[in-house]
């Protein structure tokens, strides 16, 4: 038994070493990823109930030289904990604005782009100026930029966040609360935030057809949005039944595999072209 305990302990530390080593490797290769052009953006359309593309969400991908395409859930945390998210987030914003301006110039001139923000980025003292500089350099009219923030990232320091959001909103930039319903925001709390849309979390949509409870939550969020005179947006829409349910309660924009997966720029162009020919 003593031997087993000993080997169990050794196994445990080896496991920890392995994880720590993996993390260190990830961290050092992430630091180089930007300079090596390994980061790229995929775009996923947001559509109305007639499947018309209203805009797109920019979603980060990492083309790792050995590991292949890595999704954000496997590296965003490390970029946040190390602060690498600050330069990476700036690159995301700049790339998304420049690309959207290109699409505007090609004639798709009413597309908006939604960009995800981490708490860490908002906390930077030059956050607002960074956003303003990037949008001005890109030439994209600010009203076509939607910034997505989560409840948890704005709740840490609400007064400072509200002030920063107001500065950007005065320029025409809009804000959505992402993953909405997973936090604790009450209607009265939400009213203090200068926001333009609630993005209903995917978890409620995915079970909606089997769960009366989730249906009630979705209806409540749509009603909250209406009460606040802002938009309700649904993410993770995968079936016609989900789409019809959402549309019947007045959810005015949707995103999900039913319409399209996130895709690189050239494939997003195909989606736009196909729509124009219809
Ligand atoms: P999110 O902001 O909630 O983005 C939506 C996620 O749902 C995306 O995952 C998208 O691919 C996925 N999705 C879209 N439609 C469907 C569907 O119908 N079914 C299912 N099962 N999934 C769907 P992705 O691209 O892996 O991104 C994961 C998360 O990583 C994002 O969640 C966001 O929180 C974060 N993220 C992505 N890009 C960035 C970025 O540039 N900056 C920051 N800070 N976070 C990012
Ligand atoms: Ca998002
Ligand atoms: Ca989500
Ligand atoms: Ca999210």
Automatic annotation (TrEMBL):
It comes from the Bacteria. Residues 23-276 form the EAL domain. Transmembrane segments: none annotated. This is GGDEF domain-containing protein. It comes from Desulfosarcina alkanivorans. The chain holds residues 550 to 827 of 834 of the full protein.
């Amino acid at each position: 038994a003593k031997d087993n305990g000993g080997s169990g302990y050794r196994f445990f530390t080896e496991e920890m070493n392995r994880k720590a080593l993996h993390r260190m490797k990830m961290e050092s290769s992430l630091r180089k990823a930007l300079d090596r052009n390994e980061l790229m953006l995929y775009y996923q359309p947001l559509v109305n109930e007639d499947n018309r593309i209203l805009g797109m969400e920019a979603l980060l991908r990492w083309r790792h030289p050995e590991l292949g395409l890595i999704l954000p859930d496997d590296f965003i945390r490390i970029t946040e904990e190390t602060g690498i998210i600050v330069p990476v987030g700036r690159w995301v914003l700049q790339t998304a604005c420049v690309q959207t301006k290109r699409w505007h110039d090609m004639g798709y001139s009413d597309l908006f782009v939604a960009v995800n923000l981490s708490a860490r980025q908002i906390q930077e003292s030059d956050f607002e100026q960074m956003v303003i500089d990037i949008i001005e350099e890109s030439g994209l009219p600010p009203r076509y930029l939607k910034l997505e923030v989560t409840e948890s990232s704005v709740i840490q320091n609400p007064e400072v966040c509200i002030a920063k959001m107001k500065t950007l909103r005065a320029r025409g930039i809009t804000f959505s609360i992402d993953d909405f319903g997973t936090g604790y925001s009450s209607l009265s709390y939400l009213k203090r935030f200068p926001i333009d849309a609630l993005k209903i979390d995917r978890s409620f949509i995915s079970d909606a057809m089997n769960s009366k409870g989730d249906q009630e939550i979705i209806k409540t969020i749509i009603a909250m949005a209406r009460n606040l005179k802002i938009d309700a947006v649904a993410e993770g829409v995968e079936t016609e039944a989900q789409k019809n349910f959402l549309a019947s309660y007045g959810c005015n924009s949707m995103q999900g595999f039913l319409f399209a997966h996130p895709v690189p720029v050239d494939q997003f162009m195909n989606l736009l072209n196909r729509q124009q020919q219809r």
